[in-house]
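From the pipeline queue, job 12 of 40. The input is one protein chain; the requested action is below.

Action: predict structure.
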Amino acid sequence: MAKTGIALGGGGVRGLAHILALETLDKCGIKPAAIAGASMGAIIGALYASGLSGEDIHAGVNRHIIRKGDDLKNILAKKTDLLKWLKLATPTLRRGGFLNADGALHYLLDLIEVRTFEELKIPLTVVATDYWSGEVVEFRSGELLPALKASMAIPGVFPPVEIDGRVLVDGGIANNLPYDLLPPECDCTVAVDVAPTRVPQEKEAVPGLLDAVLGTFDILLENADRQRLAKSPPSVYLKPKIVGVRTLDFDMIEEVFEQAAPAMAEFEDKLQQL
C-alpha cells in the first residue's frame, strides 16, 4: 500500500485551515505515514501526530473561541476554556520579540499529554531556521516544546529560541512548505499551503508598520515556495483561497474556516485519485 506524507505550511492564524484538510484526510480514510510542518503547520501537525483526529482538533478550537452562532448559554459553558486561552499569549520584554508563546504551547502539550517526538503516533518533522546561517533545521526527536517554539518564532513577534548553541527563528523562512523534507518512503506527498491571497483593500491600500513587515515576510516565503513547487511539485497541492486575513488576526478564526471550506471538495477528489 502506498504511504502518504503530508506537509503543513506556516501562515499564523491561516494555518488553522490545516484542520479542514486533516478532516478531509480522515474522511477519505487516509492515515499519513509522516507529517512535516513549519510554524503553525508544525503545531497543528503535532496535535494530529499525537493521535487527535481533525474533528478533535476542530472541536478544541471551537471550545476556545466565541463563534457567531453562540448564545449566552454556549458562551458560559465555554467560560473556563475561554479564560484559559486569553491568558496564554503574554507580552515579553525579551530581546527579539514582544509575545511569549510558552503558556500556549505548554497548554496544548498538556492537553495531548505528549512531551517528546518519540511519544507521537505519527513521525513528525518540525522545521526551524538557523538565524545566522539561514539553514533549515529539522527536528525529529527529543523534546517537542523547544522545537515548536523555534518553528513559530516569527521575527519581531516571538523571541528567537536557542537550542544546542544555535539561534533559531521561524521555520517558514527557510522552508515554509516542507513537503520535500518528508521521508523518502512516502510514495505520495500532500502539501497544504496557507499563504494569503492578496487583493488591494480599498480603505487600507497602504499597510501599517506591522502589516507591511508581516506582509513582506509572506511575499518572500511565497516566492520561495513557488520556485520549489515549479521545480519538484508534490503529488497533491492544496492552497485554499484566504483573503483579508493577516498572520496575527486571531479574531478571524471563523473567517479562516469559512474561506477555506470551499477548497475541500476539490481536495477530496484529488485524494480519492491517489
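Job complete. The radius of gyration is 18 Å.
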